[in-house]
Amino acid sequence: MFIVMFILACGEAPSEAAAPAAPSSPPIITLGETVALMSEGGLTLERQRWSWGPKEGPPTLSMVTYRARAPLDARVAVRPSETVAPFASLVPQDDPGPWVAINGGFYEEGAMGLVVSEGKELTPLSPRGGSGVFFWSPAGAQVVHRDDWRPGPTEALQSVDRLVNGGASVVKTIGGPQTARSAVVVGKTSSGS
């Protein structure tokens, strides 16, 4: 089982009237080195920095990816919180772990929108889901607005609002890391379920 999280400060999109400038050359994704932060009991937590933007000059968007790898018999739990919660309050007191907490902020019991896996549509496109649809096709990874989505790719995910539109970032940071609203806790029960 793999869990990949993108950690960002909460933000809001600029008004529709602001037209982004077109990039002079196609943007590229630059991946940094993967750093193992923890590895214990079959659970591994890794960090990788990446950026998206023009080949020359500063990136349009910089992010940090946290990837938690867990054995197939691991357990994942979502612990919603209205405020930032102490780590100790998120884990069961009777299970020593290992445990990992990840800032989420957008988790629900079910999918928020389109989920396509191995060519099967598991959840349909939703007007209430995020505005971006990430998918993989023979042309590579792509993101389109949900209104421009066309069935066909074998892997797709409707996500929260897009971070980049027309080559420009649509994120304005507000509140920084203290705007965390939830955490995901990963662990393994003694029964292996």
Could you please describe the fold and organization of this structure?
The chain is built from no helices and 14 strands. With 193 residues, the chain is an all-beta fold. It has a domain at 2-106 and 160-187. Strand 3 and strand 4 (61-69) form a beta hairpin. The relative contact order is 0.25.
List keywords for this structure.
193 residues, mainly beta, globular, 0% helix, 5-stranded antiparallel beta sheet, 4-stranded antiparallel beta sheet
* Counted beta strands: 14
Helical run tally? 0
N-C termini distance: 13 Å
Structural class per helix/strand content? mainly beta
> How would you sum up the global shape?
globular
> What's the alpha carbon Rg, rounded to whole Å?
18 Å
Let me know the largest β-sheet: 5 strands, antiparallel
Low-pLDDT sequence parts: 1-17, 177-193
The fraction of residues in strands falls at 35-45%
Helix content: under 10%
Instruction: Report the average pLDDT across residues.
Output: 67
Give me the strand/helix succession. EEEEEEEEEEEEEE
Strands of the largest sheet, in order across it?
8-7-11-9-10
